[in-house]
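Note to self: the last two entries modelled the partners one at a time, which told us nothing about the interface. This time every component goes in together.
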Amino acid sequence: MTPVAAPARPAAPAPVHARRWVRRRRIAAQGRVDLSTVYAVTLTMLMVAALVGQPVVRVVWPPEASGVPTVTPFVGAVAVLAAFFVVLRQLGPLSVSRGDATWLLLAPIPRRTLLAPALALTTVAALVVGAATGIAVTGRIVARPAEPLALWAGATTGAAAAVFVALLAIAGQPRPAAARLADGGGVAVGAGSLVVAAVLSATGGYDLPALPLPPVVVLAAGAAALVTGLFLVGLTLRAVEGWPAAPIAEASINAGAYADVAYVVEPSYLAEMSARRFWRSRTRVRTTRLLSTRRLAPLIAQDLIILRRKAPRLCWPLGAAAVPVYLADGPVWLLIGVVLIGALGAAGFTGESTHSDAANPALLRLLGLTGRQVTAARLVVPAVIAGGWLAITLAVLQGLGALSGPWWVLGLLAGPAVAAGAYQRAKASAASLGPILVDTPLGAFPAGMLLWLVNGVDVVAVLTLPVSVGLVLLPAPEVLGWPWLLAQAASSVLGCALLVRLSARTAGSL
Amino acid sequence: MTVVVDVRQVTVRYGSTLVLDRVDLQVPEGGAVALVGENGAGKSTLLRCVTGLQEPTGGDISVFAAVPGRGAEFWRHVATTVESPSWYQGLTVREHLDLVRVVNGGDPDDGHIDELCVTLGLTGLFDSLPSTLSSGQRQRFLLAATLVRPSRLLVLDEPEQRLDTQIKGAVAAHLRSYVAAGGTLVMASHDDGFRVDVGAGEVVLIRPEAE
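The predicted structure of the combined assembly is written out below.
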């Protein structure tokens, strides 16, 4: 028998060679960076700088400052850093392109080489965000003319803080359970800071004692912290070698999906992706008996099951119900906008099923239900949620003395009208709304996204006119009368009836 | 005997490609036929036409003496696996099956769902969300959702696909009893043994170019 030689073990390719080879192939296929792309990007950056540069500079470095340090800028900085943390966690933060995730992530190539660009980008972003935040805080607590040392102290300390926030986000990536807790903490700290900042603004702020430390000490401490942070970034680059592939692959898929959203201008992808991530993280779902007992209409029972499972997310609409309180003394148009859009958001809580049926009606055919039956059933739970949300919000405004009369009843009656808008919104994606391209000086832009932004809002604006007009015409001590309630009830019934009537009479479409 | 599916001289073209060329098919009530033929012979296309999900280029199709796919009444009688639904993300496998059965007027607690899930090996997956199922499990889940609802005509596209031998035998037995109880079955199949077990007559489709 002829001996068979064992196949030679292939030598691991040098990572630099692999990346170089991939880059060469990419250039061969797509060519080098196009000059017109460079031109377009530079022009866009210049235009953005020209358009929003001045206001941004004013926000970061206001021309006037009292020189009396208050707590508010520090609370604002905490909110910015918390938001930065949440954004980093949403992006990964360490991810690679989809192609690299498929071909290079699982190849015998050191992770370090693969992830160094993402780590560098995250660090630079942290330095920029942190320095800008630090300068913004300094700009609000230092009297003019400010000495450059104070500016440097603020920038360095801010940058160091942001680098530590980025390190925390990176550390969470391979530890999903701990990261979920950190995510909740990030959102809570961010939202809490906003509430505290709002309360401080409303009450006139809280002055700090004069800075006990000279700027040079702050600068030295900030610089030391920054150096430590950057050293830890270096250590992280070594640590990624031991990371499992899954968190990097998942982050890469997410980053790719965000790129898709930006590229095809289809924001409804974001909602779908967020829903997918939410349901994937639910590991303790148990079948309920709500459907099999047949006490409720099946699609209403379905919405109630979803509502119960999404209970952890209810804190968003509940928190949002407090926002109009801060606007009670502000411009009435802003109050109306926040009240109606908040109610629309709450009503859209169970909208995933409608969105999924509109995109692929195969399940509707399996159920054998007509569009009208589905529409009628899917309005019930959102109507109750929106009605409840509006009733709470308007009752709180009433409690503050901004309104008088049975406003909470008006809120309840407006629920079905808002549900009609939310249903309309859940049905559509940007692509389905407007494939028409609008020509702009910067190139063609799909109209779908603009239409998507206002989709459903228009329906709500028309159907809840009694609420909006009431908020304009009837500030306390004017009392809301029953004709307003009657008008809202009629508008809600008419809106829902029209929506059901306009739905398909056949199965398999809404 | 009443003809449930009546296909006469149906032609389907995709651009310049002729997929079905003047095909005839009559299936009586309580009958079972399996469309067989090589890949590209037009089996799935004919099934889509029968369910009204695709308009033929030429010819006539009637199902229950009406144009297929129109109205909720059609979908109350016809259950199909020709298209894959995107399942509701927040409902478990068992809740989906309950929903399908309740909406179609069935009793989810009459033991039918349990029996079918034992046959299809789905009992351990009741609390799973559909997005966590493997492709094979999804195929069995779709079959279960199609079979738990009351129907008079089943249109199945390769129901034996990705099933292991034991489950395949159980599915064949289930379909055979469906037909014995008066149901009508039209399916596409690549597995002759499975077709024989179901007791379905063979209808051979040939790619028009190969004629």
